[in-house]
Amino acid sequence: MLTRNCLLLFLWILVNEGSGFSSHKPSSPLGRSRSGRERARSSVGSTRNGAAGFQRVKRGWVWNQFFVLEEYMGSDPQYVGKLHTDLDKGDSSVKYTLSGDGAGSIFTIDQTTGDIHALRSLDREEKPYYTLRAQAVDIDTNIPLEPESEFVIKVQDINDNEPKFLEGPYTASVPEMSPVGTYVTQVTATDADDPTYGNSARVVYSILHGQPYFSVDPKTGVIKTALPNMDREVKEEYQVLIQAKDMGGQLGGLAGTTIVNITLSDVNDNPPRFSKSFFHLRVPESSAMGSAVGRIKAHDLDIGRNAEVEYTIVPGDGGAMFDITTNEHNQEGMIILKRPLDYETKKAYTFKVEASNAHLDPRFQSFGAFKDTATVKINVLDVDEPPVFNKPSYVMDVYEDTPAGTIIGAVTAQDLDASSSPVRYSIDWKSDLDSYFDIDPVEGTISTNELLDRENIAQHNISVVATKLNSPVMTSRVAVTVHVLDINEFPPELASPYETFVCENSKVGQVIQIFSAKDQDLPSAGQQFSFRTSKEDVKNKNFTVRDFGNNTAGIVTKRSGFRRRLQEIYFLPVVIEDNGYPPKSSTGTLTIRVCGCELDGSLLTCSAEAIFLPVGLSTGALIAILLCIVILLVIVVLYVGLRRQKKKETLMSSKEDIRDNVIHYDDEGGGEEDTHAFDMGTLRNPKVVKENLYRRDIKPEMQRGPKPPASQDSSDIRDFINQRLKEHDTDNSAPPYDSLATYAYEGNGSVAESLSSIESLAVDFEEDYDYLSDWGPHFKTLAGIFGEQSETHSDSTNTENTH
């Protein structure tokens, strides 16, 4: 079966070979005609009845890539390739069309032959390939004979771009004294040509300038050192020219160059060196301590931190007198004076100075010691100096009230120069404005000019001037401190008024108070006080004084059983004596109060009234009793206030029973504007208005007719109120004080009926108001008012009748 299948496949290939579609070039696409497909289809179909068979669906177009050379410089369009279909019989019945990238503008096709040409020169670096679509149609009907197919035209690269260093020029550094092959830097060149086609983009590096110091790897572009021990101090900067050439460096390749600036960085490979081995300096003896008296320098060929130098003085002659430090700006050694110079004592100093690097490189220690030594000689120059006191300062003591002219001390100065000039002394008047002291100009003895008072000035600070006799401008000064010593003028006294108490339950030998003393004499630091009981109080059986020896003393009980009922206050005289000369003493009296105390000795009370309290009643119980009393007082006050509030209620018992308020007061009202004297209830219900109601707040004098009830219409109510206002204005029987009458609707259901004067009828007869007492407690006040008026009226009537 396998043999038969192979045979059938071979026959099918032969059939297709016979009717093939070939192009003008081997790279042209191939096609198959429809007749060829039909023959193949029939030949394949004849095998379907066999043991095995297959069918292949063929395309009418089989496309390959076209290639066009870039940078074509010919005068005619560049031929690209030819399109042909197996349906084209050569009778010009087939037309070829082209579409896609550059169709018509860059590429054109002959519609009859299918030849494709490039109309202009192409650059692969601008666009490497173009994608187009081709189709064969009937020339008469434009009906497609084959489906549209897509193909690619690639631009074939030529070597038209030189390598370029995009990051150049380069800057690099490498330490000096580096071994051969030390990495410096890497350069990279880029070629725009096609790296997949030929050698146009294969770059090779080489050095054009910079040998024999450096080398470059031809493939990677890595630059390395080529010479050992390159010294920065000899040459610091190098300029290397690197070339990159394509075509693998072959003849005809394009090349590009770049510059690499290489700097040798410094290492500590050079020790410091003095320019000379001996330095000679001259220094005045008057130079101040801490000042720079000279400079020396050791030079180091290195730079930066590798050139930092440290200077030290080798122990010897000048090690104690001088010191040396490094100036960080210029690396000079500054010689500093540590002690004062004296020409008369020593005229010259010689010592050695060593200079060394601060930061050593162990790689170069084999070169030798990285230090150098020089000798320094300093000559001390003689200077005319002022006199010198034998002490830097003087302290003298004198007692106050010392007689004037008493010598309290002396100062001494001398001229140390070779001339040894005499010295004269004086007191600077600015330091002794009041002339308390005087000085002998030759001997230098200081004496008092007047009496000194320590309480006024305890310390005098004066300045003594010493002047050379043969050179008045050469002077020196010294400070003299005079302490005025105190004589014992004031006796000691108690430090403060002590408040002392003794507990009733105190024991024998108990210290109940510690006290101290003070003295106005100075200094207070050295004062010492002693305490004792007075001679008159030696037989005191209650208390005694115990001296603790540290300027304090204590009051000690000599018995127990103190009682406030027997004696409340005790007085204890204390004698206090100081250690001055002559010693002074005084007597102070301490007041001791007997008090009640807790068992632990804490104070309860010292008042005499407290002894009448029950025995054993504690403080907490007393506080509880007082708190209960306060609560009872508050309750009583609140109760009395409520009772008074109830008595002030007169006519009204609740807001629902308000009818009218009868207000009686003895002071004159504020007129119509007085709206705060009382509150009038508002009458709201007009249905309860009844006839034949009398006004009971005054005595009726004239008869008035009944008034109809007010209408609920607002105009009727307004007329009604206006009428009542006129009547009140013309009523001579109204009360002789200001009143406020409020008219509105009156409520109903009142047993006492209306009390309003609006509906009161004027009558000429006297009315009995006793019935008000039957209306209840709310009218009690009103009944009392009118009852008094009726009694007064009856009394006056009886009096008239009697007359």
TrEMBL record:
SMART domains: CA. InterPro entries: Cadherin (IPR039808), Cadherin-like_dom (IPR002126), Cadherin-like_sf (IPR015919), Cadherin_CS (IPR020894), Cadherin_Y-type_LIR (IPR000233), Catenin-bd_sf (IPR027397). It is found in: Cell junction, Adherens junction; Cell membrane. PROSITE patterns: CADHERIN_1, CADHERIN_2. Residues 1-20 form the signal peptide. Residues 21-48, 695-716 are annotated as: Disordered. It is a single-pass type I membrane protein. Keywords: Calcium, Cell adhesion, Cell junction, Cell membrane, Glycoprotein, Membrane, Metal-binding, Repeat, Signal, Transmembrane, Transmembrane helix. The chain crosses the membrane at residues 611-642. GO terms for molecular function: beta-catenin binding; cadherin binding; calcium ion binding. It holds the Pfam family Cadherin. One of its GO terms (biological process) is cell migration. The keyword Cell inner membrane does not apply. The keyword Glycoprotein applies. Residues 85-165, 166-274, 275-389, 390-494, 494-612 form the Cadherin domain. One of its GO terms (cellular component) is catenin complex. Residues 695-704 have a biased composition (Basic and acidic residues). Cadherins are calcium-dependent cell adhesion proteins. PANTHER family: CADHERIN-12, CADHERIN-23. This is Cadherin-12. It comes from Xiphophorus maculatus (Southern platyfish).
